[in-house]
Amino acid sequence: MSRGVFITLEGGDGSGKTTQAELLQDWLASEGRTILRTREPGGTDVGVEVREIVLHHRGDITPRAEALLYAADRAHHIATVVRPALERGDVVIQDRYIDSSVAYQGAGRVLDPDAVRALSEWATEGLQPDLTILLDLDATAARGRLDEARTRYDRLEAEAAEFHDRVRAAYLELAAAEPERFLVVDAALPVDEIADAIRSRVSQLL
Question: Phi and psi (nearest 5°) for 82?
């Protein structure tokens, strides 16, 4: 059996990752593919607990501790959920992966992005996505979407605009450095147009 396909979705909070992951899952299922849809953090029972700590803990969490928590979740998630699915030949659609840590903890928290990446690459034994879809959206527009949808902001969503501007800039730098892996889509486009662009790229991959 051939190895499955690993697709990750990245972007700032409010960029529409969940919507596009659902649409991509539905389309691939209609094509007869077996799909695992998951997320980080929170893709395992352990991950649900880590997610609660990193996103909703009331007290302070230092930037390095935050980065380590995300890496710990990622190590367990990849080993117990993602790799087995890929070995079965499934298509894995995952909301956030290593690029999120490089953008949020590296640029957002102003840690060394190379060190943050190296930590996660060690945790995952070097597993890389076949395709990363970056939904790019201006931080002000993203905030407007969150204001309409949220009654409770998590620790990252609640950060100041400057934090989210750094995150967006880091994502675009990552995409520019690896254009063969990334598909960058304007997240301000209509939902159907975004989905069409994603399907076109995924079709090439499959």
Answer: -75, -50
- Is residue 132 within 8 Å of residue 99, measured between CB atoms? yes
Q: What would the pLDDT profile of 186-196 be if each residue is shown by its tens digit?
A: 999 999 999 99
The C-alpha atoms of residue 24 and residue 44 are separated, in whole angstroms, by 21
DSSP three-state, residue 148: helix
Alpha-carbon distance of 111 to 173, in angstroms, equals: 16
Q: Domain containing 113: what range?
A: 5-205
CATH code (residue 100): 3.40.50.300
H or E element in which residue 88 lies: helix 83-88
Sequence-ordered list of residues with C-beta below 8 angstroms from that of 193, at least 6 positions apart, any chain: none
| Strands 131-136 and 91-95, bridge-based pairing | unpaired
Three-state DSSP class for residue 93: strand
Q: Which of 40, 45, 197, 192 is nearest to 129 (CA)?
A: 40
- Rg over CA atoms, the chain: 16
Mind listing the pLDDT tens digit for each residue in 54-89? 888 777 899 999 999 999 999 999 999 999 999 999
Cβ pair 108, 167 in contact under 8 A: yes
- Number of domains making up the chain: 1
